[in-house]
Structures are given as structure tokens and as C-alpha cells.
Amino acid sequence: MNVFDRNINFDALFKFSHISASTQEHLKKVYASFAICMFVAAASAYINVVTRFFQFSFLTGFGALALMIWLTATPHSRETEQKRLAMLAGFAFLTGINLGPLLEMCIAINPSVIPTAFLGTATIFTCFSLSALYARRRSFLYLGG
After folding, report:
1. DSSP readout, 3-57?
2. What pLDDT is recorded for position 144?
3. Which of 93, 127, 132, 138 has the fewest beta carbons closer than 10 A?
4. What is the residue extent of each domain of the chain?
């Protein structure tokens, strides 16, 4: 299925009915994959800063781009779910490695920025994830003015 050939149902944006069980199950999978990617990227960034093992930013950047293109080109099916999740985790790993030089610069300026940013991001992500997973009505998922 081509991504650009999909019909988008704009009426669903204004529908405030209850969320179906299948939609909530899909949300659980999406937020679980986001959480996996966040922790894989954080771990690989930490490994890169501590060990300085991967100093090939061009190669890891190209690898991350290649994995994202491969992920986009792989059709979604039950058989390819694990393969696509591995590609997404690989993309997160290489993206985390690419953050190494930026993190080293932040450490040189003020080392407390990194844990503050990570904990803030993780807290906000957790709050939004829990609200999306446990909200029964769609109206709770929209951010009001």
C-alpha cells in the first residue's frame, strides 16, 4: 500500500465518541514502540559519550537514513511486524549514536542539561501516553486552548 494513496477521513477529527477497543490496542502498540525507541536512543547516546566507540557520524547518519527508507518501503503485515520494529530500533540506535558529539558539547557547557532534558521528556511522554491509553472518550485526547 502506497502511503500517498490513502484516503484521509477528516470527519474523524471532529468525532468525539468513545474509542474502540481495537483503536486503544493500536495506541498501546504505537506508544510501546515509541518508548522502546526513546530508551534505545538514550542508551546508545550514553554508550557513545562514555566509550567514544562510534565516531563515524557520516556512516551512522547514512545508516539511520537507509534504515528509515527501508522501514518506509517495507509493507506492513503481521509477518513483517518484528522486522519493522527491529528496523525502527536500529534507526533509534544510530540516531542516538549521532547525538554523541552534541551531548559532549552540552556536557562541556553544563552537564545537568542532559538528565534534566531526558527526565522532562520521559515524564511528558509518560503523561501523554497514559492519557491516550486510558482515555475512553476522544475529546480527552485533544489539547484545549
Report:
1. GGGPPP-GGGGG--SBPPHHHHHHHHHHHHHHHHHHHHHHHHHHHHHHH-----H
2. 47
3. 127
4. 22-129
